[in-house]
Amino acid sequence: MATQTHVVLLHAYSSRNSGDGLLVDLSVTLLNEALGEGTRVSIVAADPGSFPQYPDVYPAPVLADSGMTRLGAGAAGLMFPIDSNGRMRALLQLLKSADLVVGVGGGYLRARNCIEALKLEAGHLLQMRAARLADKPTVYLPQSIGPTMPAEPLRSHLSGMLSGFSSVFVRDNRSLAFLERNANTLRAPDLAVLDFERRSEQIMTRARKARPAVSHVAFVLRRAPGWSAQQRGRYESATRTLIHQLGETCRISFAVQSRGRGNDDLAYYRSIGIDGEPTTLKDLLVKDTPDVVVSVRLHGVLESVLNGVPSYHLSYERKGFGAYADLGLHDWVANAADFDAGKVAATIMAPDAIRAFWANASSGFERIRSGRDSILAALRTARNA
Predict the structure, then answer these.
(1) Which helix (H) or strand (E) holds 325?
(2) Which of 47, 52, 209, 301 could bond 14 through an S-S bridge, CB–CB 3.0 to 4.6 Å?
(3) So what's the architecture of 6-187 in CATH?
(4) Every domain of the chain and the residues it spans
(5) Source organism's superkingdom (predicted)?
């Protein structure tokens, strides 16, 4: 009888943000596909209580704390990364019991300013340091990586730590360029894009049932993260214009995808004067399926696509452009900080828009399949090392 493989999955956040919860679900699915359905997956999460469906979840050092406790733990972690943090010691023990360490896919290894750089160092880099100390085979699933702020010591430190792992997959070309000196870096699609290919037959079956004309558009909006006042102003003005233009001929719905700490879509809707009780995107896609979704959140976009609903992505960072390039949907993505509402509306309302969307998406299947095979092979190779 084969021995059960034990994997520790690092860097999980919270399923209260459905995009982050989806990344954990997709990571676990990928691990079971690569290593067998009996694989034991221990999850290390910032919000462990939000993953009740998994039996083996542990609080992340620093990130699982809150308020002043979190601040104090972060400071202690920076000065005494091992000895002063009980959760860090527990994490090391867990990692040493594992056959393989895996970093969940996502965009947590970045920083746009000094505050985010401190959070990165005190939180996620602490987990990376533990993985290095445990000296176990380690694979990081598709990431967006690299501080955008001019902080060369942090950039060099992050690149150097990642160079010691078995494989590091990146989901966009900027991240690939950042790690170009690391021989273990490989380009692959976002986890949700990989799942799109795996479920392509099911998705296309749903897509073929869609109405050819667009009469119901759902929006998934969020507060613009880390932008200047001018960028926020352009974003809010353009989204209002887009809602008005589409609302002249379509029914408009609003959906929330995140209610997590400091990341509350409903609060943002209230701040821009949208009343009522928007449902979750997951429920809307099932109970009142729109013809098109316009989403600022990438995983709102991809959740829509996975459910057979075309989605226009107003992207606020590199991961969105990378994902839509992998899907072959270059005409359905724009910069959220500087987009032309008229052009977006024209793309969505074009006479053959829905058919063209799915024709372009299906063209990327082979490229996506190749990326999935590369990740599965890397996981198996690392497990057997």
Answers:
(1) helix 318-327
(2) 47
(3) 3-Layer(aba) Sandwich (3.40)
(4) 6-187, 202-364
(5) Bacteria
